[in-house]
Amino acid sequence: xxxxxxxxxxxxxxxxxxxxxxxxxxxxxxxxxxxxxxxxxxxxxxxxxxxxxxxxxxxxxxxxxxxxxxxxxxxxxxxxxxxxxxxxxxxxxxxxxxxxxxxxxxxxxxxxxxxxxxxxxxxxxxxxxxxxxxxxxxxxxxxxxxxxxxxxxxxxxxxxxxxxxxxxxxxxxxxxxxxxxxxxxxxxxxxxxxxxxxxxxxxxxxxxxxxxxxxxxxxxxxxxxxxxxxxxxxxxxxxxxxxxxxxxxxxxxxxxxxxxxxxxxxxxxxxxxxxxxxxxxxxxxxxxxxxxxxxxxxxxxxxxxxxxxxxxxx
Length: 314
Prior knowledge:
Blueprint: H1 2-19, E1 32-37, E2 43-48, E3 57-61, H2 71-82, E4 86-91, H3 111-125, E5 131-135, H4 137-148, H5 152-155, E6 159-162, H6 168-174, H7 180-195, H8 201-210, H9 216-227, H10 233-240, H11 243-246, E7 253-258, E8 279-284
Parallel strand pairs: 3-4, 3-5, 5-6, 6-7, 7-8
Antiparallel strand pairs: 1-2, 2-4
């Protein structure tokens, strides 16, 4: 009986921590907005306060089709600015205030898009980035980029992945259980909002089925997969889940996850992450999904001093 009560309390605290940021109010930071055109003609949006500090610029990657308006993103940017850093926020495909210009849609495997953003930002400041912070699916993309990019060490001093989904398929299935269906409903509602803005034929063809979808797994299978050119939902999950990439990340990497995260089960997956130099697995007993940022993590976002960063022109 004691175990069941403790288990209930842990799950309840995870939901409370996850929902808490949604009720916080953070002012929108005044920032310069820049549209970055991608190689295929689509675009991403970058937002950052001026001036950009060459040796103190960090990139923030929102998750779950989110953008600069997210309370978590705004709180992180504010905390970094109080420490003297310049936070640059990227809004990935279709996550900006206006829809994209191709049929591709935000997805957890778009590390090529991220590579273009990072290269552009490094050239703009004339230095490597101080660091890159990724949230949820944004963290998933970040890990894939760091593992696949041989020049990662020339472009950033470290990466910090927060509430990282280790297994995309497992996360999608867990989202359809119990109280998690509330988050699932919120995410799908956001995806509907983003997609119904578009008027290309490919998207219009999927809209009737989009309105009937209630599960994340079904959304990925019926929308994410065909819009992004995958053959199946299993291919999408298998090729892009971050767990397979973590052990191939060669730059300093910190992973902060909560053991009470309702969307990322605390299980044997963590044990398969091989401990090594430059990899820190920070497992917190609280925080839910991204909610740890409003409890204690913001002031613990550590950045190396400028003296440790290279002055190489990129």
